[in-house]
Structure formats: structure tokens, C-alpha cells
Amino acid sequence: MIQFTDVVKRYPNGVEALKGVSLTIEQGEFVAIIGLSGAGKSTLLRAINQMHTITSGSLKVNGVEVSSLKGKSLRRFRRGIGMVFQSFNLIKRTTVIKNVLAARVADMSIIQSLLSFYTKKDKIIALEALDQVGILEKAYIRADQLSGGQQQRVALARTVAQQPSIILADEPVASLDPVTSAQVMNDFLKINEALNITVVANMHHVDLALKYARRVIGIKEGIIVFDGPAKGINRETLKEIYGRDLTEDELMGEK
Ligand code: ADP
After folding, report:
1. Contact 36, 225 (CB under 8 A)
2. 35 C-beta closer than 6 A to ligand 1
3. Which of 42, 54, 204 has most ligand 1 atoms within 8 Å of its beta carbon, as the pocket-test mutant?
4. How far is the CA of 34 from the centre of ligand 1 (A)?
5. 2 lines ligand 1 (CB under 6 A)
């Protein structure tokens, strides 16, 4: 469970990116965060794994106050939270399977990881993760030979191999075409349903957010202005979140 209570995030330059956010996300939910660029989506997401430290309020993940974690306990905590980025962040010149196995490094001794000595169990976990996102047959191909959608699937498989309870996705399909975006969102949904992993995704593509997420959180200037089922969102609600009517292109995620 992720629990924000009156969370304020003020950056050193004085910008208040979160202005008293309170919300609870239960284990296994699929949540999309939508809002204008600069609304605070990324700050909200990155507070969850302590990439950004909150200024005041309380943020608990599975009962633990995140800001109390330091050093080893923070590293262990972060291992339980996967992160997927818009830019995939793969090691391009190596194989897909090695990229996915990189997620297992945290569980190895330093000597094992230096020698790239992965156990049979690690390899099975990595191959199963690739199977879950439908690209098992690409396991021994170099990552840079895959399409953007396939590379994002490798990134998702790498996160799954980390065996997290939460996946944070920061604009995961922003650099993909509409068809590929839908396929990748579908993979997120499959993982969410099959493994009960909580998915929290920042989405600039409103259409896909409404289609795949169960719950949508709308943020405007650091304040939650909508929080409810995707089905409950209409043009009026979107107007409230974005401050104006969205064009068709914006609804479809065109920049
Ligand atoms: P979004 O993800 O919705 O585009 P962000 O969370 O990135 O929004 O940003 C929210 C606000 O915080 C913006 O005004 C942005 O300029 C500001 N901001 C984000 N990161 C920093 C930072 N590291 N230092 C100072 N201000 C920041």
C-alpha cells in the first residue's frame, strides 16, 4: 500500500511541486497519473521510491515511512520497486537476456556480478519475465536491434525480474507510436493482473490512460483535482484537470 498524507514537495529553488497531496493506492491497483506538463506527475511518482525526498507530510509504502530509510535499508526498499522510463534505459550493445539479468545483480555477491555469474534460478526468472511480455524468442538478440516497443518490453521484463511489489512508470509509452503504445500498455496490464504488482504510470496519452488504468489521478499545479475510476472521466473532468478543452491530438498523446 502507498499512502500519501498531506505531502508537500518544495524544491530548493522554491517551486512547490506537490501542495498537500493525500491519497492511498492499494496493492495491485493500476493507476494512471495525468495532468499538464509541470503539474507535478513526475515529482509524485519519484517521491514513492525516494528519488525525491518530500519536504513535509507523510509517505508510507507498505507501512514504512519512506523518508526514514537510509543506506542499506533504502537500497533494499528500492529493490522492491521497479521503474520504467520513457527512454527504456537499456544497455544497448548487449543481449536482451543480459539486460534482464541485470535486475538480478542486487541479489548477488560482488564477485558473482563481476564475473556475470548468474544462477540457473536467475536465468529462469529472466526468461519467464521475457515470456510474460511476449519476447522470449528475442532473448539472445542485441538490445539495440529491437524496435522501440520491443525495447520497452525488455525494460518491463527487467523490472519484472526484479520481483517488485510496485512498478513506477514515467511516461512509459511517450516515445512510441500509437499501435505499439497500446501493445506495451497491454503488457503492463497483463503483468499487473497476473502478478498483482501495483502499477503507477505517468501518462501524457490521455486516451491510453483511460483505456488501461482502472483508476486515474488528475493533478494540476501540485494539487489532486480528480481521483476516481477511469470510467468516470468525461470531457468536463478533463477540462478541470487540464484547465481547458483538450484537442483530439492531445487526447491521443500527440505532443
Ligand atoms: P510533470 O511531471 O507533471 O511534468 P514535474 O513533477 O516534473 O511535473 O514538475 C513539477 C514542478 O516542479 C514544475 O514546476 C517543475 O519545473 C518543478 N521541478 C521539477 N523538478 C525540479 C527540480 N529538480 N528542481 C526545481 N524544480 C523542479
Report:
1. no
2. yes
3. 42
4. 14
5. no
Q: Spell out the per-residue pLDDT of the chain, length 255, in tens.
A: 999 999 999 999 999 999 999 999 999 999 999 999 999 999 999 999 999 999 999 999 999 999 999 998 999 999 999 999 988 889 888 999 999 998 887 666 666 666 667 888 999 999 999 999 999 999 999 999 999 999 999 999 999 999 999 999 999 999 999 899 999 999 999 999 999 999 999 998 899 999 999 999 999 999 999 999 998 888 889 999 998 888 777 777 655
d(CA 212, CA 43): 22
Q: Is 121 helix (H, G, I), strand (E, B) or coil?
A: helix
Considering the entire predicted model, what is its pTM? 0.93
State the residue for C-alpha cell 505499439.
180
Question: From the CA of 11, how far away is ligand 1's center (Å)?
Answer: 8
Q: Could you give all domains of the chain from N- to C-terminal order, each with its CATH number?
A: 1-79+204-255 (3.40.50.300)
Ligand 1 neighbour 53 (Cβ under 6 A): no
3-state secondary structure of 74: helix
